[in-house]
Amino acid sequence: MVEWSELLSGLVGSLVGGGLAILGTVWGAHLQHEAQAKLVAEAATAEVAGYLGALHAELTVLSNSFRTRVQPALDAVPDGEVFRFKWPARYDYFTVYNANAQLLGRIPDPDLRTMIVTAYTAAKGILDSLGYNGEAVQALADLQGGAPFAAREAQIAASTADLVEYARGLRASAAELEGLIDAVLPQLQALSAAA
Length: 195
Known about the structure:
With 195 residues, this protein is mostly helical.
């Protein structure tokens, strides 16, 4: 017959062994969860860093294009003259920004998020303005091409005056955009390289 002490010893040993097994399983699951959470966090950080790098590339290309194609023409217009430039601003130039807008909220620096949105909004605004300017220049050319009469001359004078002011506004918007781009590009580059 088995003695109680042997039975109790076996039962205690089983309970201790089972408890240790449960603790080991829980601890192992905890460690696995922490490792998985770390991998997810690293992947999210890498995704945001990649997005910042892509934004940097996109803004650099767009800024260089603007500075070489539009800015010289805008700078060459004397004050008081019409900016007779036609820009085919009917395309989506902001592929990275638009296709990944959901990542903006994951950028850890709220000031940088604001700077990015401000720079892109200004860039979109100037492209829309260039498109409007081109349409207005064409409308003015159409007016000037018609037979002269008093009402048309008044329209031409009014359109010319509006376009002269519009050119001044474009110049101011271009300067603002240049400052925004120059401020945000170094930050994008630094953060995308740091991750």
